[in-house]
C-alpha cells in the first residue's frame, strides 16, 4: 500500500509499505494492505511504519494529534508534528 505522512511544515514519509501502527484517540490500531476505507483521529503517541512483512524493517516516530485516512490502498496521515526515534 502507499503511505504518505505529512505535517504542516514537511513530508515525513512517502512510499510503499506493508503496514502502519498508529495511536488512535481510543487506543492503538494497525492498518495493513487492502484495509477497508477509514477516517480516524490520532492522539499523542508512537507511530510505527512497517516497511515489509518481516517487521524488522521499521521506522518509529513520536507524534502529536492528527488524522488518518485510508482509501483504495492509499493511507494519508496528517499530524501536527513527528519526531523520529532511532
UniProtKB/TrEMBL annotation:
Main location: membrane
Protein's membrane topology: Peripheral membrane protein
UniProt name for this protein: ATP synthase F1 complex delta/epsilon subunit N-terminal domain-containing protein
Presence of keyword Hydrolase: no
Subcellular location: Endomembrane system
Domain of life, source organism: Bacteria
Domain ATP synthase F1 complex delta/epsilon subunit N-terminal: 1-82
Keywords carried by this UniProt record: ATP synthesis, CF(1), Ion transport, Membrane, Transport
Stored InterPro entries: ATP_synth_F1_dsu/esu, ATP_synth_F1_dsu/esu_N, ATPsynth_dsu/esu_N
Species annotation: Nemorincola caseinilytica
PANTHER family named in the record: ATP SYNTHASE DELTA/EPSILON CHAIN (PTHR13822), ATP SYNTHASE EPSILON CHAIN, CHLOROPLASTIC (PTHR13822:SF10)
CDD domains: F1-ATPase_delta
Pfam families listed in its UniProt record: ATP-synt_DE_N
Family: Belongs to the ATPase epsilon chain family.
Quaternary structure, from the entry: F-type ATPases have 2 components, CF(1) - the catalytic core - and CF(0) - the membrane proton channel. CF(1) has five subunits: alpha(3), beta(3), gamma(1), delta(1), epsilon(1). CF(0) has three main subunits: a, b and c.
UniProt keyword annotation of Mitochondrion present: no
Record function comment: Produces ATP from ADP in the presence of a proton gradient across the membrane.
